[in-house]
Amino acid sequence: MSEVPFKARGVDWIAVFTVNPKLISKRQDGLCNYDDHAVSIRRTLKGRQAIGTLIHEFAHAFFPDAREGVIEAFESELTRLLDDCGMIDDEWSVDEVK
Fold first, then answer.
1. Which terminus of the chain has fewer Cβ atoms in its 10 Å neighbourhood, N or C?
2. What is the pTM of this model?
3. What phi-psi label fits residue 24: left (phi over 0), alpha (psi between -120 and 50 degrees) or beta?
4. 98 pLDDT band (50/70/90 cuts)?
């Protein structure tokens, strides 16, 4: 399990890259836990799917009142922009997180 601290609107959060079923179910790629100020990302994701999921969960942390449709649109557009700029490597994996 890798953990990376970040801030969302000045509040300390942590991104947890895991397959622990207590943090993320088998049906989910990611989860935002507002009580613990933590986002969990499935450790087995790669490339665009991993980056998109991290953007999605970060957006939940940053915009807690936003509807799911807004979060999904934000994720999709930002992921597409990063990909179009050549900033997403399809071979990137969470194992590369320091």
1. C
2. 0.92
3. beta
4. low
DSSP characters for 17-80? EE--TTTS-TT-SEEEETTTTEEEEETT-BHHHHHHHHHHHHHHHH-TTS-HHHHHHHHHHHHH
> What DSSP designation does 11 have?
E
- Residue 40, both tokens: 């969990």
For 13, residues 6+ apart whose C-beta sits below 8 A from its C-beta are 5, 6, 7, 37, 38, 39, 61
Burial 65-89, CB ≥16 within 10 A → b, else e = eeeeeebeebbeebbeeebeeeebe
Provide CB contacts within 8 A for 34, sequence distance 6+: 61, 64
Residue 20 is which amino acid? N
Which amino acid makes up residue 70?
V
Encode pLDDT of 24-79 as tens digits: 888 899 999 999 999 999 999 999 999 999 999 999 999 999 999 999 999 999 99
